[in-house]
Amino acid sequence: MDELRQRVLTLASYISENGATVRDAAKRFGVSKSTVHKDVTCRLKEYNRGMYEQVRDVLERNKSERHLRGGFATREKYRILQEIQGKTP
User: Fold this and answer.
1) Any idea what the Cα angle at residue 21 is, between residues 4 and 29, rounded to 5°?
2) I need a surface site. Which of 17, 26, 47, 85 has the fewest CB within 10 A?
3) Cα distance between residue 30 and residue 25, in whole Å
4) Residues 11-40, mean pLDDT to the nearest whole number
């Protein structure tokens, strides 16, 4: 199996099994978010149609939830800032 195909299938498997985001997968495997996105949205379709469908479902779910993750991250940021300043939320 060539290197590109192996990378595509490894990224797809990771995203599918862990419900991971493109950003998570990129960080885990040391590649850019653009590379992950291209691999799992374009190249994967050619290599494994079934896995492509699974990954697409995960990416759609992540996209629909991203506003929630952003809200949680912002709330955590300000909670930490308040603790540093000596104020308890």
Assistant:
1) 40
2) 85
3) 8
4) 96
**Residue 49: which residues within 8 A CB-CB, separation 6 or more?**
none
For 5-24, the pLDDT digits (tens) are 999 999 999 999 999 999 99
Is the distance from CB of 44 to CB of 53 less than 8 angstroms? no
Query: From the DSSP assignment, how many helices (H) and strands (E) are in the chain?
Result: 5, 0
Q: Is the model more confident about 73 or about 85?
A: 85
Contact 3/14 with Cβ under 8 angstroms? no
> Is residue 76 a contact partner of residue 69, using CB atoms and an 8 Å limit?
no
Which letter does DSSP use for residue 48 in this model? -
Supply the mean pLDDT for the chain.
89
Angle of helix 49-84 versus helix 3-18 axis, rounded to 10: 60
Q: Smallest Cα–Cα separation from 24: which of 80, 71, 66? A: 66
